[in-house]
Design a protein that fits this description.
Elements lengths: L2 H28 L4 H4 L13 H14 L20 H29 L3 E2 L2 E2 L3 H20 L9 H7 L2 H11 L2 H11 L1 H23 L2
Antiparallel strand pairs: 1-2
């Protein structure tokens, strides 16, 4: 553990979460809602998106502890009544963020293979190798964590689209305590969460290795 590693993980987190939230905002705008634009969130400026706890403190702490790295950011403001296609439109806005992280991880993995940083021998023990591998890990962590079907995480929006009206109302009540719920999940269910995330991450990495023949 060193200051160089912290600075690298900080930079990777900021880039990854900024793109995650910006895509939420752009898809919401594309589907008819101008709320994010009106509040200055339709931007790639990281200062508009980062949350001190979820975006910075929690991922860096997880990195120091050696666990899977994940986190969140300030939720993009949306007006569901303006989003076309109702709950399915909201679901599309929600999953766009995590899917962006999955795409970033895929691109980073591919770049690593092309430049020989990632090979059948493993990850090159260089600065470039460290940066690319962290970029893959962080974005996979953000994708998997945010796709968990638990309010207020992005994956819960798919449940909103599928659930009956009564279940949606219960989920809305749970979502009001969003930050508290996320922190409780991390603190109380950390071993289970880590197992789930590491298993999912391994499966995705194996798919990447199959695609890039490494």
């Amino acid at each position: 553990m060193n200051i160089e590693g912290v600075l690298i993980i900080f930079g990777v987190i900021i880039i990854s979460m900024t793109l995650h939230e910006a895509v939420h905002a752009f898809v919401g705008y594309f589907l008819g809602d101008v709320t994010a634009k009106a509040q200055g969130r339709l931007t790639l400026n990281p200062l508009k998106h980062i949350d001190p706890v979820l975006t910075i403190a929690m991922p860096i702490l997880l990195y120091i502890m050696g666990g899977p790295i994940f986190g969140g950011a300030k939720p993009v403001p949306l007006n569901p009544s303006r989003i076309r296609h109702g709950e399915w439109g909201m679901a599309l806005v929600a999953v766009a963020g995590p899917l962006t992280n999955l795409l970033l991880a895929f691109i980073a993995f591919g770049i690593g293979v092309i430049f020989g940083v990632i090979s059948t021998d493993g990850i090159a023990a260089t600065l470039a190798g460290q940066i690319i591998w962290l970029f893959v890990q962080v974005n996979l962590g953000f994708f998997i964590f945010n796709m968990l079907p638990i309010p207020p995480l992005d994956g819960s929006r798919v449940l909103y689209a599928l659930a009956p009206e009564g279940a949606r109302r219960v989920m809305e009540q749970i979502e009001r305590y969003g930050l508290v719920i996320v922190l409780l999940i991390v603190l109380v269910a950390s071993p289970v969460l880590s197992t789930i995330m590491l298993g999912a991450m391994q499966g995705i990495l194996e798919a990447f290795m199959f695609i890039f023949r490494v």
